[in-house]
Design brief:
Residues 258-273 have a biased composition (Basic and acidic residues). Residues 240-273 are annotated as: Disordered. The protein is α/β, with parallel strands linked by helices. The protein has two domains: 2-121 and 253-263; 133-239, Rossmann fold. The chain is built from 14 helices and eight strands. The chain is globular.
Length: 273
């Protein structure tokens, strides 16, 4: 199986440890994972703000970069949802039959990380070790657009040493929503404050989620409140083992490629996942 990592814009620019963790995890599970260097944005910022025509070349770049792979794995329910649902809308609007056909190939093969692990690889115990008190926030797109259900929790429950505690009002949105946080700042802050309060109520050391954009929003509030709660992507916990303690594999060139890839100025980063 040829698998490609779609690292996402926000991880490329701000959270490279998440991409490295995905590589370590998949390699440990015997997956031959590639990192196509031609990848850019999935196009979600343009689609979410109504610029569907401007999204056409971005979607075209996506399908070209990931053509020929058996699966595309991304550590983001938001970006996976864009590839699976929004790309077909953009392609149909373009009137280009070739783009429509290409999207029909790449869309169904794009998986959020927990989906790929549970549904494609058929594993829930990935050999992880993380001896900390953890609570999980299900992000909106993974929950509602993709329907990942309890896959992330099943993966976390199998982690050795972990204490997994329920998050009150877990299904409520954190309030980020890309440009929503800019256009409706007061509402966004209020929603984020509610989420941060619920996180503190759990007594967790670590808040985990499958999208770093949500963790950035909630984590910023927790940091300002001096709550003492770390935020970590699901991939980073699943990649941790008792032996490695989350350290990069020195003999894995793909880990270094993800880490050293130069960031791009992608424009309106408020929508990036």
């Amino acid at each position: 199986m040829r698998v490609a990592l779609q690292v996402t814009c926000v991880n490329d620019a701000m959270f490279p440890d998440t991409g490295k963790a995905v590589v370590r995890l998949l390699r440990r599970l015997g997956v031959d994972v590639d990192f196509p260097g031609a990848q850019t944005c999935c196009g979600q910022p343009m689609v979410n703000t109504g610029y569907l025509d401007e999204a056409v070349p971005v979607v075209r770049t996506f399908v070209d970069a990931f053509a020929g792979y058996d699966a595309i794995v991304t550590p983001s329910g938001s970006c996976a949802g864009s590839a699976r649902h929004q790309h077909s809308i953009v392609a149909e609007r373009s009137g280009d039959p070739a783009l429509v056909a290409a999207v029909a190939e790449t869309g169904p093969k794009t998986y959020e990380l927990s989906e790929f692990l549970v549904d494609v690889l058929g594993v829930t115990d990935v050999g992880a070790h993380f001896p900390h008190r953890v609570t999980y926030h299900p992000t909106c797109h993974s929950l509602r657009m993709l329907g990942v259900g309890d896959r992330p929790q099943r993966l976390l429950e199998a982690v050795r040493g972990i204490t997994l505690v329920d998050l009150p009002q877990a299904n409520e949105c954190c309030g980020f929503g890309g440009t929503f946080a800019l256009k409706n700042a007061d509402t966004s802050v209020a929603m984020g404050a509610d989420k941060a309060r619920h996180v503190r109520d759990t007594g967790a050391e670590v808040l985990v989620a499958g999208d770093n954009s949500c963790l950035m929003h909630i984590g910023g509030m927790l940091s300002r409140q001096r709550a003492g709660v770390r935020v970590m992507h699901l991939a980073e916990i699943l990649a941790s083992t008792e032996e490695s303690a989350g350290d990069p594999e020195p003999d894995n060139p793909l880990v270094e490629e993800v880490a050293q890839r130069p960031s791009r100025d992608q424009g309106d980063e408020g929508d990036f996942r």
